[in-house]
Design brief:
This protein has 249 residues and is of the alpha/beta class. 42% of the residues lie in helices and 26% in strands. The strands form two sheets. The protein has a six-stranded mixed β-sheet, with helices on both faces. Helix 3 runs parallel beside helix 7. 40% of the residues are buried.
């Protein structure tokens, strides 16, 4: 079933035309990745979906309903959460306080405390290290732990669609492997749909069901993840011999 449909959206930063008639879709339970060079428009797509950066024209449908005129808060309430690039945790607060803030809208709806606690327990199951450090200040965590916390905070809103922006940036390979394993678990066990922006193109394609390749604000290729891994143009631009050696270290 189609969960998200983006139809010919155009997004600007001032006079800069960042997204040019971009169209894409996500089916329920899929992991879809966006691939492209820096400045191709990958993060702008995520920000447009979450209304951080309003679109100038086009349409965004979530579960069949238009959402492009809604506020970021309302979009989170509908079931779309974004994990921004750079983690952006609340460093003076504890790990558990950060996670509780992720459930802010659920508290405001007066959702039962027991259900929110169950979500917190689920995050601790996915990321046992956060349980060990639940009383620790977020600013004292390692980069990998902060990334886990940022993902966990987003999951506390119980999203149907999770937008992930560069989750592996600056992290050790073993930590990246752990985070990617959790992303796969989210889809397999919880049915969460994921739109992933990731600099490690090979790892992203191995995890994803489908992918889109962007170039200067336009979608130039849409294929299954397996086909993209075998696509010679994609190999040349993003999976060349030098890059392959990096990914495989």
């Amino acid at each position: 079933m189609e969960m998200l449909k983006v139809k010919h959206i155009n997004t600007y930063y001032g006079q800069v035309h960042a997204l040019k008639n971009v169209s894409l879709h996500l089916n329920q339970g899929e992991i879809v990745t966006l691939i492209g060079a820096n400045g191709a428009g990958k993060t702008t797509i995520l920000n447009s979906l979450s209304a951080v950066t309003p679109i100038r024209s086009g349409e965004i449908l979530f579960e069949g309903n238009p959402i492009h005129a809604l506020s970021p808060e309302k979009i989170v309430d509908l079931g779309i959460s974004q994990v921004p690039e750079g983690r952006q945790v609340f460093k003076p607060l504890t790990v558990e306080d950060n996670l509780e803030l992720g459930a802010y809208l659920r508290y405001r709806r007066r959702e039962g405390r027991a259900r929110i606690r169950a979500s917190l327990d689920e995050i601790y199951r996915l990321f046992p290290r956060l349980l060990e450090r639940r009383r620790q200040l977020a600013g004292t965590l390692s980069g990998g732990e902060q990334q886990m916390l940022a993902i966990g905070r987003a999951l506390m809103a119980r999203p149907k669609l999770l937008l992930l922006d560069e989750p592996s940036m600056g992290l050790a390979p073993l930590v990246v492997q752990e985070i990617f394993s959790v992303i796969a678990t989210l889809t397999r066990e919880l049915g969460t749909t994921v739109l992933l922006v990731e600099q490690n193109a090979k790892a992203a394609l191995k995890l994803a069901d489908r992918g889109y390749v962007l170039e200067t604000g336009k979608v130039i290729i849409e294929e299954s993840a397996g086909d993209l891994l075998e696509n010679r143009e994609v190999q040349r631009a993003y999976l060349g011999k030098e890059k392959k050696e990096i990914w495989e270290r």
